[in-house]
Design goal:
By secondary structure, the protein is of the alpha/beta class. Helices cover 29% and strands 14% of the residues. The protein contains eight helices and nine strands.
Length: 265
């Protein structure tokens, strides 16, 4: 596809179109499920990620390719960390359904130049991006938009899915370097924050939140609901915070208590 190069169909068909990821229908979905069952997520908590490769996608605009795929997919998906590798466009999706819906579109879409859109779907770890100055500035900008100076409240919920971040970057708060950067920005720019909502971020470790004890003396409310905290001892990292409200609903640790009074204590 794209540019009329005689090598393009060969690369798409011979190099990438393996039986495990090409084709469509029930049998292909079963092969995809089997290929992922033995590849456990880190710590067994995060949903599966898949890497989507579009050979020669460099020849097309990002917005055009993503809009084309979104329109053709059976259900919406969130493209994460879209970038160019060689001549290919690459991005990531989270969850088996999104990966399968894209996989079955392989060679099913004819582009305006007559080429079939080739899609390679491969199980992958979550994308890992180094923390550089450009990304720090972007995170700071998004945090400024999510901060309400009237209520002194910071909304970090589903931070990795923020529309200004997700297509170009991967910024899950479950990654130490991301959470550390966010805590540093809080301490430097909004140390008087009263409430932080960090729910729905797949957080499984609070070590990087420990500096909040000295950086945010006014913090009264912390929402850690719908994360992946699996032990009550994880909360030891928060000892010293002057909290009046701590929300932990729908974390695995909640299931370890049979009585609400014991959980509250």
């Amino acid at each position: 596809m794209g540019g009329g190069s005689s090598n393009q169909p060969e690369e798409g068909s011979q190099r990438y179109n393996s039986p495990g990821y090409g084709g469509s229908g029930r049998r292909t979905k079963e092969r995809f499920q089997r290929s992922n069952q033995n590849a456990a997520s880190p710590r067994g908590t995060a949903p599966l990620w898949s890497k989507i490769i579009i050979p020669f996608g460099k020849n097309y605009e990002k917005d055009f390719l993503l809009k084309t795929l979104l329109n053709a997919s059976k259900s919406p998906f969130m493209p994460v960390y879209y970038h160019i590798q060689g001549n290919s466009s690459v991005f990531f999706v989270e969850g088996e359904a999104a990966a399968h819906n894209l996989m079955v579109l392989n060679k099913k879409i004819t582009l305006h130049d007559g080429h079939k859109l080739i899609l390679i779907v491969k199980f992958s770890p979550a994308p890992n991006m180094p923390m550089n100055d450009e990304l720090k500035e972007k995170i700071k900008h998004v945090m400024a938009r999510r901060y309400d100076p009237a209520t002194l409240a910071l909304d970090l919920s589903q931070f990795h899915l923020d529309e200004e971040l997700c297509t170009q970057y991967c910024t899950p708060l479950s990654r130490d370097n991301v959470l550390q950067t966010i805590v540093d920005i809080i301490g430097e720019h909004i140390p008087n924050v009263v409430a932080i909502d960090a729910s729905k971020n797949k957080i499984f470790n609070l070590e990087q939140m420990k500096p909040l004890i000295t950086k945010t003396p006014s913090l009264r409310s912390l929402n850690l609901g719908q994360n992946q905290l699996n032990q009550i001892s994880k909360l030891d990292r928060l000892i010293g915070l002057p909290l009046e409200e701590l929300i932990l609903n729908q974390n695995p640790l909640c299931d370890t208590f049979s009585e609400q009074s014991t959980y509250i204590r």
